[in-house]
Specification:
The protein is α/β, with parallel strands linked by helices. It has a single domain, classed as inorganic pyrophosphatase (n-terminal core) (Alpha-Beta Complex), CATH 3.90.1640.20. Helix content is about 40%, strand content about 15%. It has helices spanning about 5-15, 25-30, 35-40, 65-80, 95-105, 115-130, 195, 205, 220-235, 245-255, 275-295; strands spanning about 45-50, 55, 60, 85-90, 110, 135-140, 175-180, 215-220, 270, 275. The strands form 3 sheets. It has a 6-stranded parallel sheet with strand order 5-4-1-6-7-8, with helices on both faces. A two-stranded antiparallel ribbon has the order 2-3. A two-stranded antiparallel ribbon has the order 9-10. Strand 2 and strand 3 form a beta hairpin. The longest helix is centred in the last third of the chain and has 21 residues, at about 275-295. The chain starts with a helix and ends with a helix. The mean pLDDT is about 95.
């Protein structure tokens, strides 16, 4: 369990990750102190599946939010000696491959097919073979109350993206913990926040995910939430597990070179959710500094 000092540092990191430059409303109105229990749960993980990837219809490619955060968290877990598998689709797989070429992490990647029947079979086979202790979703579309998956603009994505909600709510129940990182409410696992926060999100009643994770980590940008969660693992483990912001820039640049687009501007640029690198990196820098300072105090 986290000490009072570590929890205070985690709360400061959580506030940093909840900066809401896009004015989406989710992070700004979410209840406080959700990061610490999420990190405390995940640090116990031995075998972790991380699901990510949000396809942008106009380019038929994944966006710059999600995969970088997934690799940051996967790297932290691997440094702890944990087994990790990444789960994504054909649109974001090239981005993860490009990012992994930068850090040579070598985390296995499993692809979800667009066919729901095939995707369900893939999920069932992965859970059976890998026997996860924890599953984390980072910026992955989740089923809304009507069973469909939506972008923040209300575009239905069912023809592009198979549901991965089966990971969080399998028909026969599950024996593993679930965590979710998101910034708009439409991401897999944020259903536990739906009742309280859907009214603060544009089109929230329609797009908000209905499937709940055991632990939700709302953030201003999902990558920030994933980075904050990795920072939490660092503090709980007593050693630095996150890469520098410079490293994160290299990962993001590699993904953009592989075709990733900003989910808001739809442009191939070194930006995330409409925030250019310098503004985006300010929060990474602040989380990194807070983590280093927290470790020095322990």
């Amino acid at each position: 369990m986290a000490t009072e000092r570590i929890r205070a540092t985690l709360d400061r990191i959580e506030r940093l990750s909840r900066r809401d430059p896009g004015g989406r409303g989710l992070a700004a109105h979410a209840p406080p102190s959700l990061l610490a229990p999420a990190a405390e749960a995940l640090v116990k993980g031995e075998r972790v599946i991380i699901a990510t990837g949000f396809c942008i219809r106009s380019g038929l490619i994944g966006e710059t939010d999600g995969p970088p955060g997934a690799l940051a968290l996967a790297g932290a877990l691997r440094r702890l000696g944990r087994d990790v598998v990444l789960l994504t689709d054909e649109f974001s797989a090239p981005l993860l491959a490009a990012g992994q070429a930068v850090d040579a992490s070598g985390v296995p990647v499993v692809l979800l097919e667009p066919s729901q029947v095939a995707a369900d079979a893939t999920i069932d086979a992965l859970v059976a073979s890998f026997a996860p202790t924890h599953v984390v979703a980072i910026e992955r579309p989740g089923d809304a109350a009507d069973g469909h998956r939506y972008s923040m603009r209300g575009e239905m994505l069912d023809d592009l993206v198979a549901s991965a909600d089966r990971l969080f709510a399998p028909p026969g129940g599950r024996g593993y913990a679930t965590l979710a990182v998101g910034d708009g409410g439409n991401e897999l696992g944020l259903g536990g926040l739906r009742a309280a926060l859907s009214g603060y999100v544009d089109r929230g009643e329609a797009i908000f995910c209905a499937t709940a994770a055991d632990h939700a980590v709302p953030a201003g940008i999902s990558n920030w939430g994933a980075y904050a969660l990795a920072a939490g693992l660092s503090l709980l483990a007593g050693r630095l597990l996150i890469g520098t912001p410079r490293h994160e820039r290299q990962v993001l640049a590699a993904m953009v070179a592989a075709g990733a687009v900003d989910g808001c501007t739809k442009q191939r640029a070194l930006s995330v959710d409409g925030i250019a690198w310098d503004g985006y990196a300010d929060t990474l820098e602040a989380i990194y500094r807070e983590t280093r300072a927290g470790l020095a105090d322990c």
